[in-house]
Amino acid sequence: FLASSGRQSSFSPGVTAAVGRQQSSRDAVSVQGDVDESFGEEGVPEGWVLPKVPSGQIYLAEVPCLSDYFPSMNIRNDMMVQALSGGSPAFWNRLLGPDDCVIIDPICGPDRPGHKKALLRAGPRPLLHFDPQKTVAAIVTCGGLCPGLNSVIHHLTETLVKNYSAQRVIGVRGGFAGFYNRQLTPLDLTVSRVDRLQHQGGTLLGTSRGGFELDNIIAFLRAYQVTQLYVIGGDGTHRAAQKIAMECKAQQLNIAVAGVPKTIDNDVDMLDRSFGFETSVETAQAAITSAVTEASCNLPNGIGIVKLMGRSSGFIAAHATLASGDVDLCLVPEMPLVLEGPKGCLPHLMQRVHDKGYAVVVVAEGAGENVLGSSAEVDLSGNKKLPKVAEFMQHSIEDFFHRHNLPVTCKSIDPSYTIRSVPANASDQILCMQLAQNAVHAAMAGYTAFTVGLVNNKAVLIPMSLVTATSPRCLDPYGRVLERVLSTTLQPSTLPYRPPKGGLDSATQP
Ligand SMILES: Nc1ncnc2c1ncn2[C@@H]1O[C@H](COP(=O)(O)OP(=O)(O)OP(=O)(O)O)[C@@H](O)[C@H]1O
Ligand SMILES: O=P(O)(O)OC[C@H]1O[C@](O)(CO)[C@@H](O)[C@@H]1O
Ligand SMILES: [Mg+2]
């Protein structure tokens, strides 16, 4: 059922397993993408060759399904939609089978042979585990704010009520504490209550850190006869949601627990990106532009510093740097901070100021732990508190310039809360809608303990156990994002040298 149930891995062989809960006649996993008829039995068509690397077996990550443990209503999804829309044809164009899947890593080559891991494709399914009209759903938002929280609440409610005719949608207020804090009375979410909500920043339901009382949460779910719980949050929230799903199973409660991953930090693993991330990167551009203006107008030798969020990973800082193209130094937690010497960022900044007249620094809040040390203090959720790296950098820059008898003017900007309190941009709005709709489709079909996400731009269901095992994720220090950052800022890499994969020898071979 879940990782902690003793199962070795969440992946099960797809091709040979004849998988199938709702449909068992198929003998192979069908992979997302159109079947090309020209690759028939006649052989390889002209212009195509067989790869030297065998394509291998497919393994499908197993998402727990309540139909395996409880009697299922087995209501036909298309008939329900037909009934709702007054007898007109169903509007779900394609109902997904139990083994429609998306391959996780689409890159193949000589160093990636063997089997492929795949995830269940998300979407409306032919048979519903729950009777939608008897469905009581609860929605909760936890952790820090993130653009798009209200959009997910809006689309979850609309999908549940408008598309599935759910009986009741309850909004749990103030994060996990809302399940048992009597001052935080739950909100009834209706279509009119969430109308245009997606255009507002923040969360209608409120959020909080800390305070996870499992017994009280289960007591709430029982008292309100909740059948589907939608938990919107980051890695911490997903760990909590997984515990709720496990407890539901232990107490034999027929409740689907769905995770909708939220974080501006983009540190929930396995996903292309989490909702809110792109909006935050976009909103950070205004701060970087202000830093450029301040730095370039304060003569001589202006330096603008922008501090961005990202406690354990530098996704926002790196992507904001790349999107801007105006940044001369980007500091992220994944690369050690080196102040002076041949790999030092301070001589590099001095050189940039010499070349351009000014310089701009973007620093992730979690950068520089190797110099500043790590704090023993934690927040209410147990997250480490961080040393003040932006202030430290400003002081170090001023000191370095003064030691070299050069004047310098540093202007520091901290847009941290500005970038996460705005409404989602257009692209995140669409992502929020996709995630919310697919979370409802999956819960209605009885899937539980899953996270909904985009992988290779396709909506998928990921077992929560997989997501929590490797989150929070970090940028690959030798990966292409940081490579691009270094190539635009020209800052020296502070990582040990690693020869490029393939190397010159293989590149020059015929
Ligand atoms: N291991 C855990 N077990 C139970 N509850 C947890 C666990 N980790 C975190 N939580 C609870 O989940 C909620 C959110 O956690 P946290 O504050 O770490 O935010 P998050 O979901 O990681 O989002 P973000 O870090 O992006 O703001 C808190 O109420 C916290 O108490
Ligand atoms: O001040 P708060 O609300 O605890 O949030 C700060 C944290 O939130 C995050 O953006 C994650 O949501 C982290 O990057 C940051 O450290
Ligand atoms: Mg977190």
Molecular structure report:
Helix 2 (149-163) crosses helix 11, helix 4 packs antiparallel against helix 12 (464-470) and helix 5 (277-297) crosses helix 6 (315-324). Strands 1, 2, 3, 5, 6, 8, 9, 10, 11, 12, 17 and 18 form a twelve-stranded mixed β-sheet that branches. Helix 7 links the parallel strand 14 (329-331) and strand 15. It contains 14 helices and 18 strands. It is of the alpha/beta class. It has helices spanning 77-84, 149-163, 214-223, 235-250, 277-297, 315-324, 345-356, 369-372, 389-403, 416-420, 426-444, 464-470, 480-489, 503-508, and strands at residues 11-13, 30-31, 58-61, 75-76, 100-103, 116-121, 127-128, 136-141, 168-172, 187-188, 228-233, 256-261, 302-308, 329-331, 358-364, 409-413, 450-455, 458-463. The chain binds adenosine-5'-triphosphate (ATP), 6-O-phosphono-beta-D-fructofuranose and magnesium ion. Magnesium ion (MG) is lined by residues 143, 234-236, 472.
Largest sheet: 12 strands, mixed
End-to-end Cα distance = 50 Å
Ligand set: adenosine-5'-triphosphate, 6-O-phosphono-beta-D-fructofuranose, magnesium ion
SS content category = alpha/beta
Q: What share of residues is helical?
A: 25-40%
* Parts with pLDDT < 50 across at least 5 consecutive residues: 1-9, 14-30
The number of distinct β-strands equals 18
Number of helices: 14
- The whole-angstrom Rg is 25 Å
Cα shape: globular
- What integer is the average pLDDT? 89
